[in-house]
């Protein structure tokens, strides 16, 4: 049989038909008779002894959802689509024609081999917490590493052939590792990110604080319940965070609950929401802003910015988030913020999700956050307070939404402890102590109504931007609820 090349999509449809079973008997792994979703190990490398033509162009493996190991070596591939294959542990795509390779959000990935790709100029590794081995060409290569906590980056720092190296400093386990960087390589490193002075010590994370903010009616408290997932005796979702379908918020005070997910302790902080009707306004809204500041005083693992629909994006909610960024958290908070699109009935449709992401990034109100944040995820978290409809189906959607949230949060390793937050809390502590108010002991469930005037005065001193926005902008037609 004459060896040549064939488009990857055509070859895949012939040997691994989308609606049929595998017809290919070659490769090291025997998958004959299996459907795409049943295959865990896939070898479509070009082995001349099997008489296999080289495949070329774009290789799309999104239907191989349970794939653990992929081998596609010695071909003419130039594009690889595997973004949803979160079970992948080993990828060998050596000896192809890739120019760019981007591996993002693979929680189980341990090893990548992309050697002998002579045209490869950029390799990006992001949020692959278990990766330890990366074999790559070094000539003219730009290497970008973020969220890869087990990867020894020093091996690349010691290689003078790397063209450009970008490292997110959150990934550096010890400060001393930065001090030992070879002086000869300093001119080659175009970006190490900011030296993280906010993190005097990289924390050993034993608990993750998740702050949920958003507009009234966006599904914010429902999302908190989906993540908390406390079951009653019948095995159904229990409403721990009060939720409702009406536009008037039912969350009138900060609520904090703790739970364990996959061996990690989570502290879920549900804030009062922005809306057009409700009861928490003016001074009481300022009180809730102060409570929120105290709730995250030990640092934040992730802010979930909840968006119910693109038409529901609220300018005041964006302004409030930006005021927190400017006065309390700093610019780096973008990296610790995830936009969560709730009530997205097509959350399983990757194409529709990508279309929605592109639209959010172009939306004037939220474009800065959407283009700078840690990611945009889609969930379908319908209310269970319905008199009609398939309640079993709604439970199914919420369970799947929880899985999506768990997978995303599992890759969010660090706690963000900005110096600005520490300074604000210290000022609040000092001023509150001078007036005999102890927020630390009475944070949750207390309304401090007798001392409300004092608290507002103190907030104006310690966090004037946030206080002015909350007190003035929310005093009339909108409020924190």
UniProtKB/TrEMBL annotation:
It is found in: Membrane; Plastid, Chloroplast outer membrane. Pfam families: AIG1. It is a single-pass membrane protein. Keywords: Chloroplast, Coiled coil, GTP-binding, Hydrolase, Magnesium, Membrane, Metal-binding, Nucleotide-binding, Plastid, Plastid outer membrane, Protein transport, Transmembrane, Transmembrane helix, Transport. Its main location: membrane. One of its GO terms (molecular function) is metal ion binding. InterPro entries: G_AIG1, GIMA/IAN/Toc, LRR_dom_sf, P-loop_NTPase. One of its GO terms (biological process) is protein transport. Residues 209-375 form the AIG1-type G domain. It comes from the Eukaryota. Residues 168-202 form a coiled coil. Its cofactor is Mg(2+). One of its GO terms (cellular component) is membrane. This is 15111_t:CDS:1. The lineage of its organism: Eukaryota, Fungi, Fungi incertae sedis, Mucoromycota, Glomeromycotina.
């Amino acid at each position: 049989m004459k060896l040549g090349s064939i488009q990857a999509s055509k070859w895949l449809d012939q040997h691994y038909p989308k609606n049929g079973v595998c017809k290919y008997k070659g490769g090291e792994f025997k998958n004959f008779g299996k459907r795409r979703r049943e295959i865990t190990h896939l070898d479509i490398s070009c082995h001349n002894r099997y008489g296999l033509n080289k495949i070329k162009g774009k290789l799309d493996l999104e239907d191989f959802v349970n794939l653990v190991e992929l081998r596609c070596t010695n071909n003419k591939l130039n594009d690889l689509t595997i973004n949803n294959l979160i079970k992948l542990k080993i990828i060998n795509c050596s000896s192809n024609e890739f120019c760019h390779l981007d591996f993002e959000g693979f929680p189980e990935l341990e090893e990548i081999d992309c050697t002998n790709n002579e045209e490869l100029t950029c390799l990006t590794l992001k949020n692959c917490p278990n990766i330890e081995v990366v074999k790559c060409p070094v000539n003219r290569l730009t290497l970008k590493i973020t969220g890869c906590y087990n990867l020894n980056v020093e091996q690349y720092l010691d290689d003078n052939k790397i063209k450009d190296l970008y490292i997110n400093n959150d990934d550096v386990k010890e400060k001393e590792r930065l001090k030992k960087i070879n002086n000869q390589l300093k001119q080659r490193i175009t970006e190490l990110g900011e030296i993280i002075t906010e993190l005097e010590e990289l924390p050993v994370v034993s608990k993750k604080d998740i702050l949920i903010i958003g507009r009234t009616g966006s599904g914010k408290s429902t999302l908190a319940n989906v993540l908390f997932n406390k079951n009653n005796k019948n095995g159904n979702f229990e409403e721990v965070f009060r939720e409702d379908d009406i536009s008037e918020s039912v969350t009138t005070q900060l609520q904090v609950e703790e739970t364990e997910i996959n061996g990690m302790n989570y502290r879920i902080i549900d804030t009062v929401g922005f809306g057009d009707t409700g009861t928490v306004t003016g001074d009481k809204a300022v009180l809730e802003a102060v409570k929120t500041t105290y709730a995250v005083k030990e640092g934040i693992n992730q802010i979930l910015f909840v968006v119910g629909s693109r038409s529901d994006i609220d300018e005041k909610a964006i302004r409030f988030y930006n005021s927190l960024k400017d006065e309390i958290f700093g610019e780096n908070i973008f990296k610790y913020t995830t936009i969560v699109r709730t009530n997205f009935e097509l959350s399983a449709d990757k194409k529709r999700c990508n279309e929605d992401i592109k639209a959010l990034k172009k939306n004037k109100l939220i474009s800065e956050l959407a283009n700078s944040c840690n990611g945009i995820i889609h969930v379908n978290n319908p209310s269970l307070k319905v008199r009609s409809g398939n309640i079993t189906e709604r439970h199914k959607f919420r369970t799947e939404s929880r899985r999506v949230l768990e997978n995303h949060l599992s890759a969010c390793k660090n706690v963000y402890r900005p110096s600005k937050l520490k300074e604000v809390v210290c000022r609040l502590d000092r001023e509150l102590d001078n007036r005999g108010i102890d927020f630390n002991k009475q944070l949750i469930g207390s309304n401090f109504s007798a001392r409300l005037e004092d608290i507002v005065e103190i907030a104006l001193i310690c966090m004037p931007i946030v206080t002015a926005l909350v007190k003035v902008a929310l005093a009339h037609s909108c409020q924190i609820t």
